[in-house]
Amino acid sequence: MKELRVGVIGVGNMGSAHVQTIGSGLINGMKLTAVADIAPERLAWVKTHNTNVICYDSAEKLLNSGSVDAVIIAVPHWLHPEIACHAFEKGLHVLTEKPAGVAVSQVQQMIEARRKADTVFGVMFNQRTNPLFARSRQLVRTGALGQPKRLVWIITNWYRNQAYYDSGAWRASWRGEGGGVLLNQAPHNLDLWQWIFGMPNRIMGFCDVGKYHHIEVEDDATIYAEYDSGARATFITTTGEYPGTNRLEISGDRGKLVLEDGVLKFWQLAYGEHEFRFSAKDPSAPPPAITFTETKQEQPETAHRGILQNFADAVLLGTPLLAPGEDGLNELSISNAAYLSSWTGGWVDLPLDTAAFDREMAKKVSSSSYSATQVIPEPTDGSYKTRWSVRW
């Protein structure tokens, strides 16, 4: 295959940006051949900007058309797994928007369907393309920090006003969206947390529903996590604080890193703190010498375009995926566990008890009644919004 024929399913804010990017020839090896959306006005927008693209009024018609080799899924969260599994059954490659689904059990089905299809499966974790996050991962995973001790991430600059939640009928409810800040905005950070620091073994979550907005889902959350190694993590996020903070701090036996304001600061000890702690014979003995380095973000992340290009290269050239679909399971495990903990009032072990989560989520969905008093949709303009990129 020399060229990847791509169909975009869902032409809202995200989908329209993918349509414009691929349709403009900005992704090497990708050709936009089809789109699907249930809204006639969105298909009309596509036809205005991409006259050679086939438009379908349902995902099923596109998947059965034979006009694509791969699909990009950009619809409400609950629909990601169903469409992805259907695509895999058709032997298609799949790149889905985050989160991969609402429930871990759904993503497990997606992974199994992909295994049977033996096609490429990626998730749009565009913030993995940021060079400072990649460097942080390198420092932790190569042992430069020594034995990890603690991660603390304050990520409260996901501010949203009420008009944002009123911009789509599917938003802000358990039935429509499946969650709030942990499922919509913070999946990027939950993914980076586990990508850099690894997966914890148990979670305790505190999720406040409608603390700052007139919504049915959480807009403020705090997660505590513990690791088998003894390390711990604290994660704080909200859409209700302005101005917000984006500060990641990770400490280990050999030093500390702090990522904030587009600068990565790294303090590295000459030898392990644990060794000094028990070898020092004098209370006033000087601790290990420190080497300090500071790395500024000189190159912007390639963001969504970077993930699109990587996905095309994975299909056409065999390039490893930067954000494999299987990783969507890790990020979602953390948020599912935080929800289950918040609902039940205790620690939740990982791997997740998916049956327990699905039962509790079913209760939320069955009693879901929220709807915006007046839906004011954002205009479809085919651009990537600045709010989707890393903001310091």
Which key features would you list for this structure?
single chain; 392 residues; 6-stranded parallel sheet; 13 helices; 15 strands; 34% helix; 22% strand; globular
Give structural notes.
With 392 residues, this protein is of the alpha/beta class. The protein has helices spanning 13-23, 40-49, 59-63, 80-89, 104-117, 131-141, 162-165, 181-184, 187-197, 273-279, 303-317, 327-344, 354-366; strands spanning 4-9, 30-36, 54-56, 70-73, 93-96, 121-123, 148-155, 202-209, 218-226, 232-238, 246-252, 255-260, 263-269, 290-296, 348-349. The strands form two sheets. Strands 14-13-12-11-7-10-9-8-15 form a nine-stranded mixed β-sheet. The chain has a six-stranded parallel β-sheet with strand order 3-2-1-4-5-6, with helices on both faces. The mean pLDDT is 95.
